[in-house]
Amino acid sequence: MGVLDIAKGMGLTLGKLFQKPVTVSYPEERATLQPRFRGRHVLTRHPGTGLEKCIGCSLCAAACPAYAIYVEAAENDPASPHSPGERYAKVYEINMLRCIFCGMCEEACPTGAVVMGNEFEMADYRYGDFVYAKEDMLVGVTGSIPQRREAAKSGKPVRLGFQLDGPPRAELEGVEYP
Amino acid sequence: MKVHVDGVELELPAGTSAIDAVFEAGGDVPYFCAHKYLSPVGACRMCLVETGSPRKEKDGSFVLDDATGQPKIFWFPKPMASCTMQATEGMHIKSARSSEVVAKAQAGMMEFTLLNHPLDCPTCDKGGACELQDRAFEYGYGASRFGFDRRHADKHYPLSDFIILDQERCIHCKRCVRYFEEVPGQEVLDFIERGGHTFIDTEEGGLPTGFQGNIADICPVGALLDNVARFRGRNWEYDHTPTTCTLCSVGCSITVDARNGRLERIVARENREVNEAWICDAGRFGHAFASERRLTVPLVRVDGELQEASWDVAIAAIRAGMTRHNATDLALYLNADSTLEEGVALEALADAVGSPHVDHWPRYEVSLDAMPNGAATLSDVATADAVVVIGADLGEEAPILELRILEMLRGGLLPPEYAHGTAIADLRLVERPARKPEKLAVIGKETRLWQHAGIRASSNGHNALERLSRPDTAELQAALKLLTDSEKVIIILGADVLNGASGSFAAQLSELATRTGAKVLAIPAGANSKGLAALNLVPREGGLPFARVADAPAAFISRLDPGVRARGLTIVHDSHLTATARLADVVLPAVTNYEKRGTTVNLEGRLLELEQAALSAGEAADLIRTLTAVSEALGVRAPVRGLKSAQALAEQKLGLRLGELPERGVIHAFRSSHVAPTEQTHVPHLWTERMQPSIQTLIPANLQPLPMLGAAPVGGDD
Lengths: 178, 718
What we know:
The complex is a heterodimer of chains A (178) and B (718). With 178 residues, chain A is an alpha+beta fold. Helices cover 22% and strands 17% of the residues of chain A. Chain A has a single domain, classed as Alpha-Beta Plaits. Chain A has helices at residues 3-17, 59-63, 104-108, 134-137, 145-154, and strands spanning 31-33, 41-43, 69-75, 87-95, 114-116, 131-132, 162-164. The radius of gyration of chain A is 21 Å and the shape is elongated. The N and C termini of chain A lie far apart (53 Å). Chain B has four domains: 2-112, Ubiquitin-like (UB roll); 121-139 and 148-290, 2-Layer Sandwich (Alpha-Beta Plaits), CATH 3.30.70; 323-358 and 536-597 and 619-688, Rossmann fold, CATH 3.40.50.740; 378-522, 3-Layer(aba) Sandwich (Dimethylsulfoxide Reductase, domain 2), CATH 3.40.228.10. Chain B has a seven-stranded mixed sheet with strand order 16-15-28-27-26-17-18. In chain B, helix 7 (311-322) packs across helix 18 (623-634), helix 8 packs parallel to helix 18 and helix 8 packs across helix 19 (643-654). The longest helix of chain B has 14 residues, at 100-113. Chains A and B meet through helix 2 and strand 3 of A and loops of B. Chain A: This is NADH-quinone oxidoreductase subunit I.
């Protein structure tokens, strides 16, 4: 290795010094995610009727390799149904500590109800707070449990630590990330 | 009879159907309408196979193939339904394994079957255990070429409180219709309309109670579903436990399906010799008590109030309570549906403490084990020439026995058994079978069985037998004539004659049985009375029977609810806070029979195994473990400390090896060792209040259609 090679290497280093850095100073700055990033699940609703897409069929729980999903179904009240058809998910829980974010649940879902969203900031202190219920995942809920707890305490809206380069993917029907 | 299936030569008994021939050869044929215990009708057309037979010349020799010199096979021009086709000597059968034509025909048939099927498998409770789903996956094309809209019909049509019908899902296999006609003999369901408009319904609305739940088991699709287990879990989520039902003395084989520690569903399991494939509605739907309002921790009375406590505190409370009594004062009572092992443990403890007050309830005072022609089995009943039922309300005492009697009336044909199991299509069974009511005589109060009996005689109490021996009316004379004239006769005795029956009754019965050659089947009072009677579990010298529990100085009462307490310390061992438990000093939580391992003995004397279902019962314990705790409190070394030692002791006492029984159980000639007066009568009652399921009544009678999404689909929706 000659002097020339060293100079070439140093030159490259010097060149990088003047380029725009790739790193972002998260969490002060928002990280830019790809729309296909697999984060916290979203339970979507039918546009128009606003009924839940989930029918409580438990196929996501059957497909889950980490046994992270628990579903309990019940009969819809025809006067005020939760979902179209006879059946809806009375209990829908995902243990985010167990979840490996593989997206098999999304693939198994026959109605496109459970979709992998982009949120990922779920760090918390107690095991119990990692079990996300239906009301934590239905479309329209922004932020994870700790983020919403923080927002409620401070009175400020939830601040997500990421942004998307464009709109969320089509499967995330009705989801908007601020 | 030699039959060639897919090129394999088989030796089969005459009368075998083509479908059984294929299964016997290790092959597979899809079918929906055939059922092991129903007549084959060929309604679904899924079991198509190619068949051909050799033909004989006028002189009896085979028509030979010119090319090979072998008998020439004359093939049917089209595939044939194998469930209604009898295999004949030299027949050749080609299933989908060796015939393209059959594979194509079956896939095409599957396409037709799915033509109007809604494919709402994700919401359907049958999903995952559905015959249509499985066969469509195995034999279907995977896609449909029919682009038009599917039939729309009522998707939420409750046939009764327990059975819900989805008319869209029905594939018209007619199993349910045939079941009601052939098994319980009730013509309630039928097809209405024709072609694609066909639907099943009842005329009057509602289904007869008793055996309606079985149609949910046999429905090959999710059209008829168990309303009690509706949406409680998917089939792959349940923990399936094969066990034995102990609500009555028949001991039907069941599968208990639990999820998250709750008993959600019970389905019938096949046991050819006991319940075939059927169970009664009480056994199927009456399981609410197993998961609701259970006692999960011991309760101890402190300052007049029952308070939750640990087992150690409960044991200390018993010890403190027993300081005022001798150990011999403690009366020990157990329910007659307890397992044989539990009975052995209680007998051993009673021997160890020397208590004379021991009893099991319900029981009768008479032992009918020493009958001249032996005890009848359920298969004997089904194949008998005549049956005389005396003083029994089978609907309350042994419902499945009623089905076996009806099986006898329609010819007593037990389907043959092959290596692949019970024959799938028994060609001797016919649709709408002619019944022979003259083979059945019923003596006693009017019950459901009356409508099937040719000879009926009203009678009360146990003098019915005496009246039968010396008939005073024309009906009784006819019944006695039926007994004497028929070859294989069975006398079935129920609670009405057995209550208060004494030794002279046994002698009289024995005399009648000798005279007529009849076998006797006495329905025991409790689920395991037959087994417990072989142990010394009756009041000993100076002991108090269970009827006089209120006079006992102190009592341990296991899963019985007399509604009174003993004079002194009262210990109640029960799964629920019963009226007796509320009066007790110490309440110990018990497990139900769905959560026990052990052995029960049914009315034939058949040993059947209980298995433990995955139900959450907190700190509840079975009788063996509870008695260990009680003996610790009494300061006695517990003679039996677990299931294994109970089984070892049972082997010593009865000469039986428990714990390794075949699936169908084994018949053992039990002898009642001890008989004692009961001082009360047993009123059999199958359904109790705590068994009533809480059925969701969300659906109003005037059901509005649910809002569907967007516009109705145009064209195909698959």
